[in-house]
From TrEMBL:
SMART domains: FDX-ACB. Its EC number is 6.1.1.20. The keyword Aminoacyl-tRNA synthetase applies. It is found in: Mitochondrion matrix. The gene is FARS2. SUPFAM superfamilies: Anticodon-binding domain of PheRS, Class II aaRS and biotin synthetases. The keyword NAD does not apply. Residues 175-356 form the Aminoacyl-transfer RNA synthetases class-II family profile domain. This is phenylalanine--tRNA ligase. InterPro entries: aa-tRNA-synth_II, aa-tRNA-synth_II/BPL/LPL, Fdx_antiC-bd, Fdx_antiC-bd_sf, Phe-tRNA-synth_IIc_mito, Phenylalanyl-tRNA_Synthase. One of its GO terms (molecular function) is ligase activity. Keywords: Aminoacyl-tRNA synthetase, ATP-binding, Ligase, Mitochondrion, Nucleotide-binding, Protein biosynthesis, Transit peptide. It comes from Equus przewalskii (Przewalski's horse). Residues 358-426 form the FDX-ACB domain.
Length: 426
């Protein structure tokens, strides 16, 4: 059924592949030595079986698509491992919010939740955030489902509604998130996000504003590019100003003074208006986070009808790669002491520049194979590569595809051949 041809090349098609980063050779050999069992190659659970995750059983069905590679990452919680680079970023952000935003009794205004289970319901991950049925972000090919009702969260926003419903109005959520994605130095099926939410009452938002007692949070009007239909322009402008000022202070704390910042209009289902923040770092504009004014429908459904608010989310790996000059996202999962000890600092704000572990060149392999014409996603192949090759595989490129023009018999299975290049560290 599957026709494959595998050959090792030293210098063919190098133009298609980015140079491999320095992952420690010793760490690679350890990964090679633990060859996965054949049963681990499967990316789907058999309907009727049960998978146990974090001490709870979940029945499998036709939506189950967790690979053993991804399951092995659940519970690692890199953001909570002391002196890990992701932990350093989390602690720097947390320290900033604790110092800058203090409540009436001298206690931190923002509470922090960094140990919430990554297993959520599809309602939490999508419906609570106003993501409609049929939205592309729900696709099985882009997410990791335990079954039709439970999944590994695709974003920390999956906890927004629950925390708002519990009565919280200022909080940070940090955790691992899971998305099926391409294979290269910038993408990994597990990464880490930090989410923040802040709500304001009428008194809190208009305090200190001249004639603020006469201003209102809500009105019934029409939605525009600048505001929601239920918000007054005054309320929206003040929430947007507070959001952008909060984020400007945060990135200044992380990157230093004199940083050029720009805001790009964008779209998220759960905020409006929405923005992406870009910074000019070493002469290059980099997108670092997404944010916006929270959709009032979401806030109302969680029981905070008398408040308005903002939310933002950022990727810890993204910030760490920029701040510490880490070239490959796979390195965050390394247990090599030569990597970890570089971040063993006495001050979380100390500057660190990553030093490469290996200078061995990449090994490039071309592989050709037949693909089914239906019920196939590229992410299915990426999961298979990650399960078999582990973190040795740096990048997978599709370099050619061909569909035979000759009609196939109606009683045969249709296949489409493709050719890709796989880059791995030697």
């Amino acid at each position: 059924m599957v026709c494959s041809a595998l050959r090792r090349v030293a210098h063919v098609r190098v133009y298609l592949v980015r140079k491999a980063s320095g992952v420690s050779r010793g760490h690679q050999h350890q990964a090679l030595g633990s060859r996965p069992a054949a049963s681990e190659f499967a990316a789907r659970g058999a309907p009727g079986s049960v998978v146990e995750l974090l001490g709870k059983p979940y029945p499998q069905d036709d939506y189950s698509n967790l690979s053993q590679k991804v399951l092995s990452r659940v519970g690692r919680n890199l953001h909570n491992q002391q002196h890990h680079p992701l932990w350093l970023i989390k602690e720097r952000v947390k320290e900033h919010f604790y110092k800058q935003y203090v409540g009436r009794f001298g206690t931190p205004l923002f509470s922090v939740y960094d140990d919430l289970s990554p297993v959520v319901t599809t309602w939490q991950n999508f419906d609570s955030l106003l993501i409609p049925a049929g939205h592309p972000s729900r696709k099985k090919g882009d997410n990791y489902y335990l079954n039709r009702t439970h999944m590994l969260r695709a974003h920390t926003s999956a906890h927004q509604w629950d925390l708002l419903h519990a009565g919280l109005d200022a909080f940070l959520v940090v955790g691992d998130v899971y998305r099926r994605d391409q294979i290269d130095s910038q993408h990994y099926p597990v990464f880490h996000q930090l989410e923040a939410v802040r709500l304001f009452s009428k008194h809190e938002l208009f305090a200190g504003i001249k004639n603020g007692e006469s201003l209102q949070l809500f009105e019934q009007s029409s939605r525009s590019a600048h505001k929601q239909e239920t918000h007054t322009m005054e309320a929206m402008k003040l929430v947007e100003f507070d959001l952008k000022q909060t984020l400007t202070r945060l990135v200044t704390h992380l990157f230093g003074d004199g940083l050029d910042i720009r805001w790009v209009d964008c779209y998220f289902p759960f905020t409006h208006p929405s923005f992406e923040m870009e910074i000019n770092f070493h002469g290059e504009w980099l997108e670092v986070l997404g944010c916006g004014v929270m959709e009032q429908q979401l806030v109302n459904s969680a029981g905070a009808q008398d408040r308005v608010g903002w939310a933002f989310g950022l990727g810890l790996e993204r910030l760490a790669m920029i701040l510490y000059d880490i070239p490959d996202i796979r390195l965050f999962w390394s247990e090599d002491e030569r990597f970890l000890k570089q971040f063993l600092v006495s001050d979380i704000n100390q500057k660190v520049k990553f030093q490469p572990l290996s200078k061995y060149p990449a090994v490039i392999n071309d592989i050709s194979f037949w693909l089914p014409s239906e019920n196939y996603s590229e992410n299915d192949f990426y999961d298979l590569v990650r399960t078999i090759g582990g973190d040795l595989v740096e990048k997978v490129d599709l370099i050619d595809k061909f569909e035979h023009p000759k009609p196939w018999p109606t009683d045969s299975v249709k296949f489409q051949p493709g050719l890709c290049t796989i880059t791995a560290n030697s």
